[in-house]
Amino acid sequence: MTHIDAGAELDPVHPVPPPKGRATGLTTAEVAERVARGEVNDVPVRSSRSLSEIVRANVFTRFNAIIGVLWVIMLFVAPIQDSLFGFVIVANTGIGIIQEWRAKKTLDSLAVIGEAKPTVRRDGQAAEISASEIVLGDLVELGPGDKIPVDGEAVETDSLEVDESLLTGEADPVIKKPGDKMMSGSFVVAGGGAFTATKVGREAYAAQLAEEASRFTLVHSELRTGISTILKYVTWLMVPTSIGLVISQLVVKDDNFKESIAYTVGGIVPMIPEGLVLLTSVAFAIGVIRLGRKQCLVQELPAIEGLARVDTVCLDKTGTLTEGGMDVTELRPLGGADEAYVRKVLGALGESDPRPNASLQAIIDSYPDSEEWRCTESLPFSSARKYSGASFSEGDGATSTWLLGAPDVLLPDGDASLAEIEDLNKQGLRVLLLARAVVDLDDPAVATGATATALVVLEQRLRPDAADTLRYFEEQDVAAKVISGDNAVSVSAVAGKLGLPGAENTVDARKLPTEQDEMAQALDDNAVFGRVTPQQKRDMVGALQSRGHTVAMTGDGVNDVLALKDADIGVSMGSGSEATRAVAQIVLLNNSFATLPSVVAEGRRVIGNITRVATLFLVKTVYSVIIALLVVCSQVEYIFLPRHLTLLSTLTIGVPAFFLALAPNKERAKPHFVRRVMRYAIPGGVVAGVATFVTYLLARHHYDGAGAREAETSAATLALFLIAMWVLAIIARPYTWWRIGLIGAMGLGFLFVLTVPWLQDFFQLKLVGTTMPWAAVGIAAVASLAIEVIYRWVDRRFPA
């Protein structure tokens, strides 16, 4: 049998000439002419920010501006050791830029690998090109799952059905005929064809939609929104406090001018949680790099965070739990049908579809086509109707129309064959029914009254890593729901083989209630759903979300697009249709379902650890504001020079936060980031600030004469360091050997400064006598105990 289809992809190295009457597309000369005129689809689709944007985002921040001004002032009025905070910011900003640049390069390389390439026909030959190379007037070929890259007008259609819901909101597919408009951003759900590009580049209807779909973005993240909220409140607190401190130190106190400025800056700098934003960017960037090494393309950065919050994952069976390929294991003729004739029918059906799905490909591999059969009309497979069909001229003058699809859709209820099919489905086998239609293929009731002729038994190839992945989700308290268009019993058998909890709780989606609350209850009570239509998949995601679930949806077929778009996180396989890859936030380029645990773990690591270290940064901000307010109210000299707080911040926040932010963390991310951080930061900072100020006042009464100011500051620094170390010890729980080692190393670092003479002089820290240093230790111990008690009370009273 000879059959050449307009939508078939041809090898550009060994081109197949088009049949007579088929459009040949533009010539090479015409393409060159259009390129010269700039009529190219040149929408800049980027997977990451440019280098200049990365530098601007990391350098030109509100707090960097404040710190930069203070740094310049300190370089003129104080020794270099009081300007160390500026060098730390330069280093941190540099690290942030380098890490995000590395993440950009990772994303860019993955985006090239994962880019969908449309097929265009030029000089009569089909070839895959980049979407950006399409020119005005190009003839673009289409098949199931293809996303329409530019606006155009249909030229050839073969039962072409297009879903425009992403643009218009209309869920029903639109049947396209020659001359109909094709809208960029829509996608093919069934059939094939070709269209002429009439609008390219920024003129195309969905050009901006296409650009935003794959852009690296830092927006719509609860974590980043929470940090921005915190920084806004910090600014409100910082401005009046800083003004009061400046007036107090420069006007009220008649001290040395330069020294007053140095102490004033020492009070302002620690109020700024400057490292928090940078550390968040670094943690996200490192997450992208780690996932990139596992061939996972993160199209939207908050997806890492979103997947960490997921508590329900909806899995499509085909392509997710099973591999794409299938094998025909048995052919069972029904009603005395001749097996040799059935094989001919199956061979002809296989050849009639230029873009076969996995089931039909298995049939093509098993049953060769018969040359004398000729396809006169075809009906492509649609996941909504769940069957395909074709009409043939059999070579001897006879004609016939055949359907191939789901037995429980094509057979009436109570048919004797259904029991036999049920037994096969219970073994995890997939069964297709070959039926002879009694009416024309274009009749809406073509399936009614069709004569069952044979059962085609197919065996699906289970993914070897699927069982381990499902086990991981179970251990992490993430509910897995298998949602498939296949027979429910068959899906249940596959899920059972893979050890899915609740695999025996199976529902035929045709019996699901349509009311959202009732559907949500059915989804909570069951784990496996079969015969699900594309619209039902979307409804099921919405029903789960209505119960407060954070839902991830995996899929690779065009029937998954609507659900992927509506889910909190859409995950597509790299081999999936172009449409699914366009709407998914995460693309698994290696087609390995086993990569998902890595993505979940990376998200949990980032979110959980940033929540931890944010507490450290904000405790410092709170105690700095408290100390400044107490200094203003009591009209005394400010306690610390910038060098003291640079040392404290480095040992109790900067270095530990970097290691804690990159540590493993399997705890599922929880909502209300701001509340969870501030419930620790406010009481911890208040206690630390008050205790430090009390130590300073006692030291002022204890010391007098030359060197008193240095001794007072040293005692207060000791108290604040010990309290901050206790906060670090609380945040670092549960303890591991390296966390204990980290805390110990920070303590030894401070001890080193206190005991080495040149470091004592450099940081102007020297403990005088024994009474006040031990008093500082005692006050710190009481404050640390108070913080421990308060934190435990907060955990009980305001659980996260």
Order of strands, main sheet, comes to: 8-21-20-19-9-16-18-17
Largest sheet: 8 strands, mixed
Count helical runs.
Answer: 27
- Average pLDDT reading: 82
Structural class, by secondary structure, is: alpha/beta
Distance between the termini: 67 Å
What is the number of E strands?
A: 21
Whole-number radius of gyration? 34 Å
Poorly predicted regions: 1-21, 209-219
The residue fraction in helices comes out at: 40-55%
- Broad shape: elongated
Q: How much strand?
A: 15-25%
Protein name: Cation-translocating P-type ATPase
Organism: Streptomyces atriruber
Domain P-type ATPase A: 118-212
Subcellular location: Cell membrane
Explain what this protein looks like in three dimensions.
Residues 118-212 form the P-type ATPase A domain. Keywords: Membrane, Translocase, Transmembrane, Transmembrane helix. It is a single chain. The chain is built from 27 helices and 21 strands. By secondary structure, it is of the alpha/beta class. Helix 2 runs antiparallel to helix 4 and helix 4 runs parallel beside helix 9 (274-293). The strands form three sheets. It has an eight-stranded mixed sheet, with helices on both faces. The longest helix is centred in the last third of the chain and has 39 residues, at 596-634. The radius of gyration is 34 Å and the shape is elongated.
